[in-house]
Automatic annotation (TrEMBL):
Keywords: Membrane, Transmembrane, Transmembrane helix. The keyword Transmembrane applies. This is Uncharacterized protein. The chain crosses the membrane at residues 38-59, 162-183, 214-234, 246-267. It comes from the Eukaryota. The keyword Transmembrane applies.
């Protein structure tokens, strides 16, 4: 212990003994670190994101038996988010977020080069993961907008057409913004000479303020789409029940994701004018990961809702097909909200109804019930939550597409 303070970092002691550390610098100040809370925050965000995305993909597999384009984009973005987390952990363990004097006087040149390389990799990974996450949300909005609602008219068709064009334009803008951010990542400041400047501050991630500004603009554009859908009533007047709740959930998650983008821009501006940019790098790194994670969570909300809301109303009729004499209380659940394409769901409904109508072993008295059920489906009435189409005296062997189907709801 002396007037310069105390540190347990052996690297600082070695540099001090070698005379690399100026005598006016405090050893205690050199060893200051915020890495532990940053690592905990990054790990927590990644764990929550992984859990939500896993529930979303499991829901798609259970309810739809397939992955939608939105699911596939999320499936690619999630490993990239995990990779960004690993790179962030490595950067923090290399003390990339210590004071700039630590990097100047204590960190070896080889480690500085390693830090600069990892910063480029982390930034490119974050840009790619965020781009795919936003495109996943746009793919979901596009699938809803191309699905015909229960009632449409000329005005609603015009609104849907304008919305589709808007989604395409936003998708193009998001892709262009991602490419521009990637190109700017390779730029270094004019004073970066491949030494310390290449491993600290903005030089390691291109123009941080520019990238953060572009990211904020892209986020606002992406999450403005569901806001417009909710404001104007969706693709054709009303968004079906669970889809409507899903879109509103995306809006709420989008507000949080956009707030993180705004926070990232604020930190980047603060780092740009700071005399100690490496000290500001740690929080920026954590917010970048949280920005990707919150975007993935926001676009995964619609896929999680069926799992939470309807996990108890599935009916596995394939297990009953072996018994040809089941004649009581068969309840059929028609899946609409679990599919991205409303038309496909509707085709399944009526093809199954026709299957029942033409079934050779359906008793005569049951056929009238089947016709009534078909007429009820074709009418534009809404089902109340928990309501079921009840067909008495129905032979289960005549039902082919009833496995894991859900109750039709219209809000």
């Amino acid at each position: 212990m002396n007037f310069r303070g105390y540190t347990s970092d052996p690297a600082i002691h070695a540099a001090d003994l070698a005379g690399s550390v100026p005598p006016e610098l405090s050893l205690t100040w050199l060893s200051e670190s915020r890495d532990r809370p940053l690592l905990i925050g990054i790990a927590t965000t990644t764990a929550i994101t992984s859990l939500v995305v896993t529930c979303r993909l499991a829901s798609s597999c259970l309810t739809q038996k397939r992955l939608t384009p939105s699911d596939r984009l999320t499936l690619i973005a999630t490993p990239l988010h995990l990779l960004h987390t690993l790179l962030s952990h490595r950067l923090l363990t290399l003390h990339a977020s210590f004071h700039i004097e630590y990097l100047q006087y204590v960190t070896p040149p080889s480690t500085l080069s390693h830090i600069a390389l990892l910063k480029h990799a982390a930034q490119l990974t974050q840009i790619t993961a965020l781009l795919l996450a936003r495109l996943s949300g746009l793919a979901y909005f596009y699938s809803i907008s191309t699905s015909p609602g229960p009632e449409t008219n000329t005005r609603e068709n015009l609104n849907s057409s304008l919305l589709l064009r808007g989604i395409r334009l936003v998708a193009g803008g998001v892709i262009f913004g991602g490419v521009i951010q990637g190109l700017r990542t390779f730029q270094v400041s004019a004073d970066a000479d491949g030494g310390v400047a290449a491993g600290v501050g903005d030089a390691g991630e291109g123009d941080a303020v520019f990238n953060a500004s572009v990211s904020l603009l892209c986020g606002v554009l992406v999450f403005a789409i569901p806001s417009v859908m909710v404001w104007f009533g969706g693709h054709g007047g009303k968004i079906p029940g669970q889809k409507g709740g899903g879109v509103r959930g995306v809006v709420m998650g989008g507000v949080l994701a956009t707030s993180l983008s705004l926070l990232r821009l604020s930190l980047a501006r603060q780092s740009a004018v700071s005399l100690d940019p490496s000290w500001e790098y740690g929080p920026i790194l954590a917010v970048q990961g949280a920005e990707v994670g919150m975007t993935l969570i926001a676009v995964s909300v619609p896929g999680i809702i069926p799992t939470l809301a309807d996990c108890e109303i599935f009916l596995a009729c394939d297990k009953l097909t072996k018994n040809k004499e089941i004649l009581a209380d068969c309840r059929i659940f028609f899946l609409v909200d679990g599919l991205d394409e409303f038309q496909e769901a509707r085709d399944r409904q009526f093809s199954m109804t026709m299957k029942l109508k033409t079934g050779h072993s359906i008793p005569t008295e049951t056929r009238s019930s089947v016709f009534q059920a078909g007429d009820f489906l074709s009418s534009k009435k809404a089902f109340d939550p928990g309501q079921r189409i009840k067909l008495q005296n129905l032979t289960m062997g005549d039902i082919s597409e009833v496995v894991n189907q859900k109750l039709l709801r219209n809000s």
